[in-house]
Amino acid sequence: MQDELRRLPKVQTLLESDAAAHLISLHGREDVANAVRAKLNIARSKIMAAGGASTSPISEPAFFDDIADDLSARNANTLKRAINATGVIIHTNLGRARLAPEAIEAMRNVAANYSSLELTLQDGKRGSRHAHVEALICQLTGAEAAMVVNNCAAAILSCLSALASGKHVIASRGELVEIGGAFRMPDVITQSGAVLREVGTTNKTHLSDYEQAISDDAAILLKSHTSNFSIVGFTSTPNRQELSKLARETGTILVEDLGSGVLINLADYGLGDEPVVRDVIAEGVDLVTFSGDKLLGGPQAGIIAGKRALVDTVRRHPIARAVRIDKLSLAALRATLELYRAPHDPMARIPVLQMLSEPIEAIKTRAEVLAQSIRKETRLIAEVVETTARAGAGSLPQQDLPSASVAISNEHASAEHLAAQFRGADLPVIGRISKDTFLLDMRAVANEEVDLIARVAQSLWPHDA
Question: pTM here?
């Protein structure tokens, strides 16, 4: 065994080779040295497992080819552009909302330069980053004051921590939602230091349930919009006006977590009856929290809007520093909010809203163009089929969006294999599999991406292969 182990080359000897020099120029000496040691350790383990029996000598070219593959895979950029052909518009795994050009330009301008992030230009003194969006949010929602944090979970956590730590938060059992990544509202309440008081049942909660639960320790009546599911049938829950009146009479605070905030009435466009933030505040809710990167169509952000005294209390709490929004997201959010004001049309300028409301005829045309190109340039079979798309990210859960997809097939490849190929391309194209068929849904695909998908297909299944 010892003879076999002694036959292994030394690390230093391998690192002095020409093959190693090339890898070192690409990845650095430390990474290459660590990879060489790891490879030699594997070789030693094989010799010991064989009990010292003779093994094949190490081939230096093959040895470094393996190391090159390992280093390339380890150092590959895993956060990269992808084309969303899943039919889910606000796809959490794919980065949620696609930003408007104005938002992208605002981020670029702030990223490439210094900015007045926390500087008041009028007097040269330190200012608040919230000031860049507060007036806009108030104008669009009717709130007295507003602030922004890094996501909606942080927004509700901030409100509860600042206003109810050590006190009771009263919430209906039917509204104790679980959001993405298995984060549950009861856990958020506990983390804030508040004590959860559940009232009612899954399907029915009455105003009297809240009344009976209120004590001297009660601080917040918490209402959560069930944006990612729907309970139908034998159901009942108090409306906002009733809860607002009860909060005023008992000295508690009515807080509503909308999850996906809507600034315009989507029902006017046939897109479901989601609560509009302005209407929620007008109905007497003291504080509203909602996301910036769902139906609002902006960057990841959590928005808190409502009564000035309450917003100021949340703003002064230490947790506000821990969850504050960064300058790039803030710039993108302001630019997105501006698109909700005249003379802009948010349905035309904000990609999420545009994709939700795009006529099916335009989507079918896009699908036909792609299918024709794939049939012409590749060995794949491509057919246009009718499908159903979704808003995604817990938004509009009951809303089916008519769509059109390109069904891709080949007698020599399964749907799973095709999906993996498209997903593994230099420009990943993410589709979905339905009934053993690989689909490229066109609702969330931009016109300029059709040719890119066709090129990916051609690179994977060229005619002359």
Answer: 0.88
